[in-house]
Design a protein that fits this description.
The complex is a heterotrimer of chains A (331), B (326) and C (456). Chain A is of the alpha/beta class and 331 residues long. Chain A is built from eleven helices and five strands. The chains are: A alpha/beta (331), B alpha/beta (326), C alpha+beta (456).
């Protein structure tokens, strides 16, 4: 199945790709639900930010990238890591803090990294990774390749100075960065209209780059727009900004009592649920039936159960390794 | 073969040699290109290497340090100049939460070979927000390396070494030393290993430890002690605060039984406290007196000339501290 | 098998939660994702969702009840399955370790633990420091490797002296180079200087290092020197201060009663002569040794005199350790012959000699200073009738012993000359009374007047 845009025109996914999208969204959702469960059982500790409801953003966008492209994200990044191809077993092990985790237990939920998949974290300081994205893109430009750096961040980070510095620099230096804003309407508990004095994509327009808004609950819309963005960037035209309107069904983190929003609001977004939407469409088009969906959910259930079992069986890191990786040894 | 030159020229030579040697090296900073650098360190480099390798940036410390981190992680060898250490606070998040921690948080996957140069130090009546020392503050963070040369030869050798280190290096230049002259080896492979302090002057009665600008107060104090009191002081230049060569200091204290630490930075919670603690832990039985600290006074730097002078350590302060411990 | 629903961990610092309201009652069908209860944490009220499907089979906690995170709060059963009535509260799934990480200890810290346990009598003062506990610093040169430990003091090397030791030595005018240090790597510590001062003839004697209880002789010091130059005030040495403190405490807090008795030592002396005729040098028995043995036996039979008064009641000591007064040049000390119960006369004699020898050289152990349960203070060498002593706190009694003198006594209607020794028992009236004291002192008399019984 091809994901590459030919001569700038986005590809419309065929049944195989649609099935792949559906599987990935269901996998992310179930993975995240079970992470929530594991947190309440004390297996995952510290902070945990669930991606439930936003699956279409990660699945639609990252599937438009190549393996050689680079990703850097915020702390709600398990879904992105999964779509990118990082083994969910190792992600779960990292969440459990075990030695087989992606960072051998040193990073945790907010710091998933993988050199092979060019996944540069998992970042916990809101807006803090955006200047780093500029650097990743800058390096590619200097090295003369046409890689894309995709920077995933939320609406909450837009008020940070670093957002503005980063967008400004990326435009000035024409760095090949896809600025992907997952706008779920809230920082932690502050609604967007109390945080930003403009529409987010318009701020990006102000830095002189193409900036569009897309329905983040529609995986196909996200996929189409991302392909356009990627084509633009690879052609050397500099950064591109996508604001994906999405929604998180759960609180900001596990500790969030959600005092700041009404249940009706959550329910209204659930009616636009990305998984239900794709499933409905695929059934209408005859690519999927109930039994097939059931089989898919069953497969996902087993895979996630396996990830949990893997994580549980992975040992604790040795205390003697505490001082490893503070400094990199000279080659 | 050695050539006499000022410290700023030695730094420029180091940058130039590294730019020539490794095409992954590039420089970013405010006014380092067209302006030639606010301390003239990078003068001429834009002409020689072009705007891709010598980049003038907007006034966006956080943005450019973060970009440096990203470029380093992606495989290049960037140097970011922050005009002075005073402006580095704007980029503190990038230095502390990103540069110093990427390697650890990723479980060893991504190292950050970034050189961060900054000018520091007071003494020019620039006022409270433009006179910070703070070498010791950066030395506090695991994951960073902190280098602070006191003379042109060390400046060149250490800066070249910084570009070979696969870790983030905070390279702090004392603003009062840019014009100081010294003999500098012209060997393009001349480098000084980190974590190697240097005994600048041998002595037997007291050990004077300094770093960056304060080394000079230490040396002058030692001369005064000899001429006026007939005392023999050993002077050590730490050169790098992290890694710290405490062994050289300990060896000296075991010989002299007395130690004075001189630093521009504020005394309370300062780096001299760290050195004192280590001397106490490892040379307790060799001390004839408590370790003395001659540090900056705990005040924001005043503008007035006399007040500023009083706020910074002098060679007289060093002499006084030594005499008090005899 | 029933599925357990536990009190969830919601938020990094939550330790317990309150079940506010059940939203699914027993018997209700529960589907995964349904909200089954409201939980209150100290931050907010949150909804608990079901992670599994089933029938709500049991509410293990009531509405309003607060339980720790991880405890079972409900059971879900499959269709038709039954569940046990009572479910024990389970501990949380995984308690994170508390402060498991220890920095590599600087060696100075680690060795302090060994040196506080050491005593002044240890001949080999230099111990190897234990290795640092916890994580090892594998990589950085900046890691402190240790504090330059050197186990042997090389010839001409700098002597290690702690600052406070140096100060005391300097104030006392003492030559440090002759002092052997018992601190880490041979460091001269305060206690070493103080001990050296004590042994030094020129100065006043400071107290040797004792841990808990201090020594307390019951008698007056033998020397006749004036306390100070006439008209001047000489400060008391540490030892004198300690004695003063303890004697005052004893007299103020322990109500003394006294009993005296004359003991006929004629047979005992004869017995001793016979013993010593065939004894080796170090087992030659002295009069005091006989008295120690007699007291040991008497204490065994009258255990209340081997006890001490506490606010909670009488503490009965298991072992018998008898303090004997030893006159040194600088003052009287009363270390204990340890564990006298069951020791034969020869062993007691040997122990006493050894004790005296070591006392003169300042090499007593801490136990010898502090573990005594009964004291004998013997002024037999001074020609006094007896000594009515002050109890050595916190003991319950002290036996004062006078000189053995030729005295006329009446035996079977006739006046004969016998070797008489007057003893005085001072006892704590909170522990014993006169009748018990009388029985005790008579016991001692009986044993000494029938010395063969001392061979037990």
């Amino acid at each position: 199945m091809s994901t590459k845009a030919i001569s700038g025109r986005p590809v419309t996914p065929g049944p195989d790709l649609l099935n792949h999208f559906l599987y990935q969204m269901v996998l992310i959702r179930r993975f995240e639900e079970r992470c929530g469960e594991m947190y309440t059982k004390g297996k995952i500790r510290g902070f945990l930010h669930l991606y439930i409801g936003q699956e279409a953003c990660a699945v639609g966008s990252i599937n438009a990238l190549e393996p050689r492209d680079r990703l850097i994200a915020h702390y709600r990044e398990h879904g992105h890591a999964i779509v990118r191809g990082i083994d969910p077993d190792r992600i779960m092990a990292e969440l459990f803090g075990r030695v087989d985790g992606t960072s051998h237990g040193r990073g945790g939920s907010m710091h998933i990294f993988d050199t092979e998949k060019h996944f540069y974290g998992g970042h916990a300081i809101v807006g803090g990774h955006q200047p780093v994205a500029v650097g990743l893109g800058l390096a590619d430009r200097k090295m003369g390749n046409d890689n894309v750096t995709m920077c995933i961040f939320g609406d909450g980070g837009v008020a940070e100075g670093e957002f503005h510095e980063a967008l400004n620099l990326s435009s000035l230096w024409k760095t090949p960065v896809l600025w992907f804003c997952e706008n779920n309407g809230y920082g932690m508990g502050l609604p967007l209209e109390k945080s930003i004095a403009n529409d987010i994509y318009k701020l990006a327009e102000g830095y002189r780059m193409p900036a569009v808004r897309v329905d983040g609950m529609d995986v196909l819309a996200v996929y189409e727009e991302t392909q356009k963005a990627v084509a633009h960037i690879r052609a050397g035209n500099g950064p591109y900004f996508i604001e994906a309107m999405t929604y998180r069904y759960r609180g900001h983190s596990m500790a969030d009592a959600e005092l700041y929003r009404e249940k009706d609001e959550v329910a209204a977004f659930r009616e636009r649920d990305a998984i239900e939407r794709l499933k409905r469409r695929m059934m209408e088009d005859g690519h999927l039936d109930e039994a097939g969906f059931e089989a898919l959910t069953q497969r996902v259930e087993e895979e996630v159960a396996q990830s949990i079992a893997f994580a549980d069986a992975s040992p604790q890191p040795e205390i003697q390794t505490l001082f490893d990786h503070v400094y990199h040894e000279q080659e | 073969m050695a050539v006499e030159m000022r410290m700023r020229d030695a730094l420029r030579e180091a940058l130039r040699e590294e730019l020539l040697r490794d095409e992954r090296v590039f420089l970013m900073g405010e006014d380092i290109g067209g302006y030639g650098g606010s301390y003239a360190v990078t003068r001429g480099l834009l002409d020689e290497f072009g705007p891709e390798r010598v980049m003038d940036t907007p006034i966006s410390e956080s943005g450019i340090v973060g970009a440096g981190v990203g470029a380093a992680v992606a495989g290049l060898r960037p140097m970011v100049e922050i005009m002075t250490i005073n402006f580095s606070f704007v980029a503190f998040d990038q230095i502390i939460n990103n540069a110093s921690k990427f390697l650890y948080m990723s479980g060893g996957q991504f190292n950050v070979p970034l050189v961060l140069r900054m000018a520091a130090g007071g003494g020019s009546q620039l006022g409270a927000t433009h006179s910070h020392a703070l070498e010791g503050l950066y030395a506090h963070f695991p994951g960073l390396k902190v280098v602070c040369p006191s003379n042109p030869a060390d400046a060149k050798g250490l800066l070249k070494q910084a570009f070979r280190d696969p870790n983030p290096v905070i390279f702090i230049e004392h603003s009062a030393l840019y014009g100081v002259k010294g003999e500098v080896p012209d060997d393009p492979d001349y480098r000084i290993e980190f974590g190697k302090a240097r005994v600048l002057r041998e002595g037997t009665d007291v050990t004077i430890v300094g770093y960056a600008g304060s080394v000079h107060q230490g040396l002058r104090g030692a001369t005064m002690l000899e001429e006026q009191e007939g005392l023999s002081a050993e002077v050590i230049d730490l050169r790098t605060l992290r890694p710290l060569d405490i062994d050289t200091v300990i060896e000296s204290v075991k010989k002299t039984n007395r130690a004075v630490i001189v630093e521009d930075d504020w005394k309370f919670g300062g780096f001299a406290g760290e050195i004192s603690a280590q001397i106490m832990e490892r040379a307790f039985d060799w001390l004839d007196a408590p370790v003395a600290r001659v540090s900056g006074k705990d005040v924001p730097m005043p503008y007035n000339r006399n007040l500023e002078f009083a706020a910074l350590p002098s060679e007289e302060d060093v002499v006084e501290a030594v005499l008090a411990m005899l | 098998m029933a599925t357990e629903v536990t009190m969830p961990q919601m938020g990094a610092d939550m330790t317990e939660g309150t079940l506010v309201r059940w939203l699914k009652q027993v018997g209700d069908q529960v589907n995964r994702g349904d909200i089954i209860a409201e939980i209150e944490t100290d931050k907010a009220t949150v909804e608990l969702e079901a992670y599994d499907s089933g029938i709500m089979a049991q509410h293990s906690v009531k509405e309003g009840e607060t339980v720790p995170v991880g405890d079972v709060i409900a059971l879900l059963a499959a269709e038709g399955e039954s569940v046990p009535d009572n479910v024990a509260h389970k501990p949380p799934a995984e308690t994170p370790p508390r402060r498991m990480i220890e920095e590599p200890q600087p060696i100075a810290q680690a060795t302090t633990q060994t040196t506080t346990a050491s005593t002044t009598e240890v001949a080999s003062a230099e111990k190897a420091p234990p290795p640092p506990r916890g994580a090892e610093e594998a990589h950085e040169r900046i890691a402190p490797e240790g504090n330059g430990r050197v186990l042997e003091r090389e010839a001409g090397a700098r002597q290690r002296v702690s600052p406070v030791a140096r100060r005391i030595a300097s104030e006392a005018g003492l030559d440090l180079s002759a002092i052997r240090g018992t601190g880490p790597d041979g460091r001269v510590l305060r206690r070493d200087v103080e001990e050296a001062l004590r042994a030094h003839k020129a100065g006043e004697a400071p107290a040797p290092p004792v841990r808990e209880r201090e020594l307390a002789p019951a008698a007056v010091a033998p020397e006749a020197r004036p306390a100070a130059a006439p008209g001047e005030v000489e400060p008391l040495s540490r030892m004198r201060q300690a004695i003063a403190r303890r004697m005052l405490m004893s007299k103020q807090q322990q109500p003394h009663y006294y009993l005296t008795l004359d003991i006929d030592m004629t047979e005992a002396l004869e017995f001793r002569k016979q013993l010593n005729a065939s004894a080796s040098d170090d087992q030659r028995v002295s009069i005091n040794d006989l008295i120690v043995k007699a007291c040991a036996l008497a204490l065994d039979r009258h255990p209340k005199f081997n006890a001490e008064f506490t606010e909670q009641g009488l503490r009965q000591h298991k072992d018998i350790h008898i303090d004997i007064g030893i006159a040194l040049d600088e003052g009287l000390i009363a270390p204990a012959i340890l564990d006298v119960r069951g020791k034969g006369l020869g062993a007691i004699a040997a122990d006493a000699k050894d004790l005296i020898e070591r006392a003169k050289n300042g090499r007593l152990t801490a136990d010898e200073y502090s573990a005594g349960t009964f004291t004998i203070t013997n002024l037999g060498n001074f020609g006094v009738e007896t000594l009515i002593g002050i109890i050595n706190p916190p003991q319950a009694a002290i036996l004062g012993v006078g000189s053995v003198m030729d005295q006329p006594v009446v035996r079977d209607g006739e006046v004969v000359v016998r070797k008489m020794m007057k003893v005085a028992l001072s006892a704590d009236h909170r522990v014993t009374d006169g009748a018990e004291g009388a029985r005790f002192i008579k016991e001692i008399q009986g044993l000494l007047e029938n010395p063969v019984s001392l061979a037990l």
